[in-house]
Write a structure and sequence with these properties.
The chain contains four helices and seven strands, in the order E-E-E-E-H-E-E-E-H-H-H. The protein is of the alpha+beta class.
Length: 156
Amino acid sequence: MTYETPRVPAQRPADEGCALALDLRVEVWPGLTLAVPARLRYRSADPYAVFLDNHTDLATPITWVFARELLAAGLRGRAGLGCVRVHPGAGAHDGAVLITLTGDGGSVVLRAPADRVRAFLARTERLVPTGRERARLDLDGLLRRLRDGGAPSPGP
């Protein structure tokens, strides 16, 4: 009797990621700010993107997706055009990073602690260093999903 070792197809490494729960601050009236429960997420399978979930206390959070590099650049100076803009706080907002989100209903400026955002970005760098993103993309899987009419999902 001959025993043949079964062939196992090559496996991609498990999707790695990290998340940061934080309360963003939004000024709704001069001198009146509210906390918005939020979460920053990063997945190595989608290495260029950062996911910002707002209102994580709701059944369905509001999720914005933008470039990880935009968030990093916004810690150093003004970055972004259009729907998402990021820049460091100054004056009363020193030590914060300001994220402006613009949609059909208007704009909102969210204030996050810059040190926590910086630490989150450092964690993403340990998963996928800047400049190494392309090596982590599953282009074949993306093309297959697009061909089959599906869209890539943001995942956990």
